[in-house]
Structure formats: C-alpha cells, structure tokens
Amino acid sequence: MKTLEDTAVPVTAEIHPDAVxxxxxxxxxxxxxxxxxHAVNGISYQLRAGQMLAIIGESGSxxxxxxxxxxxxxxxxxxxxGSARLVGTELVGLDERSMRQIRGRDIAMVxxxxxxxxxxxxxxxAQIVEAxxxxxxxxxxxxAADRAVExxxxxxxxxxxxxxxxxxxxxSGGMRxxxxxxxxxxxxxxxxxxxxxxxxxxxxTQAQIxxxxxxxQQRLGTAVVIISxxxxxxxxxxxxxxxxxxxxxxxxxxxxxxxxxxxxPYTKALLGAIPQLSTPxxxxxxxxxxxxxxxxxLPPGCAFEPRCPRADEQCTVRPELTEHEPRHRYAxxxxxxxxxxxxxxxxxxxxxxxxx
Amino acid sequence: MNERDDATxxxxxxxxxxxxxxxxxxxxxxxxxxxxxxxxxVHAVSDVSFDLGVGExxxxxxxxxxxxxxxxxxxxxxxxxxxxxxxxxxxxxVELSKRELRHARRDIQMVYQxxxxxxxxxxRVEDVVAEPLIGHTDLGKxxxxxxxxxxxxxxxxxxxxxxxxxxxxxxxxxxxxxxxxRAIATxxxxxxxxxxxxxxxxxxxxxxxNLFEKLRAELGLSYVFIAHDLATxxxxxxxVAVMHLGQLAEVGTAERVYGSPRHPYTRALLxxxxxxxxxxxxxxxxxxxxxxxxxxxxxPSGCRFRTRCPRAQDTCAVEEPxxxxxxxxxxxxxxxxxxxxPTVSVESLRASMPVRSPVRAGPVA
Lengths: 356, 365
Known about the structure:
heterodimer, A: alpha/beta, Rossmann fold, 8-stranded mixed sheet, 4-stranded antiparallel sheet, 11 helices, 12 strands, 28% helix, globular, B: alpha/beta, 31% helix, 21% strand
C-alpha cells in the first residue's frame, strides 16, 4: 500500500545542470471554515534554461495555483509546503519583502487578461519604465525609456516609439498582451510564466504571441512555462508537457514522446474530447462523464478512478507517478500500452449522421 | 414577397424553402469620441446574406470584432439592423412590431457564452426553465413542472437533484445545460449559440457539443453556431460562414470550406490553429498571419482583407470583391481566390503535417 505520501523520496532524483527551477513535493492547501481544500498535492518537476514547459489541465487541476504559489501570489489562507528552488533561492516560506525582490526580476508572469493587468491611467511606456526601475533604482528615467522602447520592439509591437505614449485602451488585445510580455521581460527574468496568456486571444493573434514566446525563449534563453487547457497548443510549442489532475501530475514526458504514446486514460480522454479538423461534421466526440473530484474530499485511490473507463479495484490504491519508460512518467495501473493502440478509446462513439 | 435574390441557398440539394433567409443585412453604429463628438461610423456588419435550411447547422467563424455576434443580434432583432431583411418561416422579422416579434421569438432562442450571466442567480432551476413556458404557452402549474422535468432529463440533468438548485450551486457545464433546457422549452425551430461552449473546460465542452448533436437529431433543431474556434464549428456545422470585418469572406459546406478553402483569409485562419493528430501524436505548428486586423471604423478600401493578404494586388485596393459562387453553393468574395485543392483525405492531411522541430536534447528529469 505505497502511496505518494509514504515515499518522501524526491521524484526528481537527478538534477539537470541547466535547471533554473526545481520544484519538489509542492503542496498547497487552502484553509476555510469547512474541510481544507487540497489544491496541489505533491508535485515535482524541474525547468531548464531555454526550455518551454507546458502544464495542462482542466479548471481546478491545480495548474495555476501551483505556479502562483511559487510567486507568492496566493491569499493568506493558502498553506504551502515542499520546496521550490529558483537558481538556489528557496521560494517556499520566503518573506514578502524578499519575494518582492525576486518577483518580476527572476521570475515573471503574464496573465490571461491583459486589459485587467495593465493600469488604464498610465501610458504603456510609463508602465514599462516603472517595471524597469522597480528592481534597478539606479537606472535613470531617460535610459529606462530607451530600454522600454527597445523592449516594445523586442515584443514586435508595431510603431513602438508612438505606442510608448499611448494608453492601454488604445491598443488591441494582442498588442496589450505584447506590452504585458515587455513588462515581464523588463528585468530579464530567468523564468517567464504564461498563465493562459493566449486563451482570450483570437487564433491568429494567439499564433503571433506564441511565436514571440518561442523566439524570446530561444534568443534570451528564458525558461518559459505555459499553463493552458489547450493540448494542441502545448503539443505545438512546448518541449515537455505535464498533465495535472486533482492537484497531482498524472503524466509527464517530452512533448513528442507523450503525444505519440499517451498512456494515462485521463490524457487520452482530453485528447479524445478535442474536435479535429479532419473529422466529418456531426460526428460525436468521445466523452467521459462526471466531474473532477471535490478537492476537499479527495478519494484515497487514483483521483481519476470514478470517471475512468479502465478503472477496477486496484485503482482504489493510488498509483505513484513513476518513470515507466525512459523520460515518460505516469501514474496509472492500467495505462494504454502500444498493444491496444489500434482500438479507439473507450466510450468513443462516432455516428455518421445523415444530413438533411 | 418571394423576391429573395441571389438565392445561393447553401442548402445542398436545394430542399424546399429555407428556415431562415438573411438578405443584405447592414448594421452600423456611430462611434463617439470625447464629449460625444461623432468620431465615425463602425461598419459592424456590411451587406451579409445567407440561408439556413430546416435541421441544418450554420457555423459562423471569424476573429474578435468581425461582426459575428452583431449579425446574430440583428438576425433575431435584439438590435434592429440598419437595413436588410430577415425571412424566418415566411415572415420578414425586420417588419414585425415588437408584439409580433415577442411571439416569433418562441421559435428562435439564444444560448450565450456565460451561463451564469444569463441565469437569474436567485431563481431555482425549475423556475428558470419554466419561465418561457409561462409567457409562451398556457400550460398549468403541474403541466409546467412535468415539462421542466422532461427538459432536464433531455439535457442530461437528473431532475430530482437539480430542480431545486440555484444557478450558483451548479458547475459551468451544468449551468449551460440549464440554459439549453430553457432555450428548448418552447420547442423552438432555431437556436442561436453565441460562443456557447467557449468558456467551458475541454471535457465539458465535448459533453455539451454531443448534447447539441443529440437535440438536433431528436428535436430536428436548426442552429446558428457562432464561435472563434474553427474545429468546434467544423464538428457541429453543415454550412460554415467565415466573417471578416463585417463581411462574409467565404460560405459553403463545412467539408468544402475546411477541405479546400478558396479565400486567403480562411486559409490563414486554418493555418493559425495549433494542431495535433491524436493518432500519430504529431503536432502542427501554426503559420502566423502578419499584422493586426484593421479597424471597423476605417475599413480598408476595396477588399477589407488586403492589408494582411499575401495575395493582394493593386485591384484589391480599388475594387470590392463581390461574393462569387464557385460551385455547389460555395461563395467566395476574393479577386484572387486560391486554387481548388484535390479533396483532402485524412491521410493526406496527416502526411502534409510538418513534423515539429526536434526537441532540444536533455533529460526530462
């Protein structure tokens, strides 16, 4: 009866020399009047310089909470345990004053809604200048302004010199997100977290912003974490993918390996639920029923067990996240292995509806 | 009365009269600057026409600001269009009085993006779903309750559990099911879904999409399905209209518009989607369209897409392209449409997907 709790051995045994962020057994619990909410339940991963990592999951999977915990952006009711080292500095338990030093300088974040993240009463340029001078007081205003225009050019904002003087409402959603990225890059952070940063954007703008992030990651060597519910997005851009469910990592591998050999039934279900351009109109999607579990009353076994088409008695004991194949970890007793690749996922119904 | 011109019915096979015929809809707003000074005219929808057959689904795709929602609102007369006609079941909705319109709405219902925003938080599910029955039918209290029970069953919610709940006690997917139950309460012929699944999680999205398909088959519903997600629209639609800056760039059957798009804008949209083949696990990295969409306040002269179009020539700045039928009800508004590609099979699509750039070396952990 071994569960993750019993094995306090760090999952990331071997530390990569380029690792900039090392997360080990991170847990986040929210206290409230009722039973506490277990939002993140022991996740471990490492992020290398110049890597793009995607954290995938549904609402409530803990993907956002886990990165906000690193940045000290959670409300006081959150209890964070475990370890998260950003180039040697332990982030868990860091006081607000020191955290403020690190936030924005070493680790920065871009959010889903750029309209709400920007100050509507300040010009775009002034906001970038402020971001630059927050961490480096000695930089003179004129120099900071030059740097701000440079940053706006870096994020490929058209007519950067003119936009410098404009206000957020004068820009489109895509341009605002570029400004947010410019602000995030102001002090050349080692880690950039994009939390659903392209979700609210049009598909055309999304492609532009993602291309920009890839370019920055490659040119500046910034490590990028994209948090998304979009598997297609992760598959197209990320080097490595973590799939989260109910606050735990359920599958983790390099992107190509993961999508070529999806093992965990939950990842399979996510994949089956995405409409494909190649399927005919009116075909039904392979769906699984049910809801994600209540995070204040998690089942003792596999959290996906109540919804899983492959579940049996064994699943009432939680499977550990284990490296079953080289660089491919998953937490499942009944993974989809190569032998059953030819069969469609359980519950798949395709119906060639006649059209009137 | 039946002078519906350019009757390019997208209804393949040319069935009888379409359920909905929209002709030359124009919607414009006055944009005001500081102090209420007239700053210009927003050309939200400019001369859009389409047909929708009984039991058919029309998908409308396009970027933010392309006029998708405005077109839907002008269609059901939430906002009267500046000009144009909307023929629904033999009547021109544009000419109806408010009273007549209220009656006609029994047949056309809408489902919006945010279910919590469209459900009264203080009402119980039962009352929310029963409300249209009070206005549009003369069912008694007991009959209404029976109908609500039936409707909740139909949308996959157990009435014993959900009748007495209030909207805030529901998840997003459940709330959207309630909104759908309410929309189908009066047995409408047409449901307009404006980004109805965009804010839901992937797995819930798939459930609701399957529910729409089930209702279509069981109740013979027609849909206008507005979304910015092209794959979702493909899955649900018979006919797809691609909107760009208030105009229809391309209309045709879903198979043709996605399989062999003729408008460069449609091609660009399709190329922007990050794709993933679920069987091979091969990802397709998007090709980006350069530039920002122009402002509907000052649309470019001639073709409104020309500023971003890789095929644009001098003519495109001078002459506005008119929609031309390229066969089978497939209409394209472009001076230099793309060549027809051979019908794309799933296999060839798969083969054409470029393999993503190799993953940088280094162990995962």
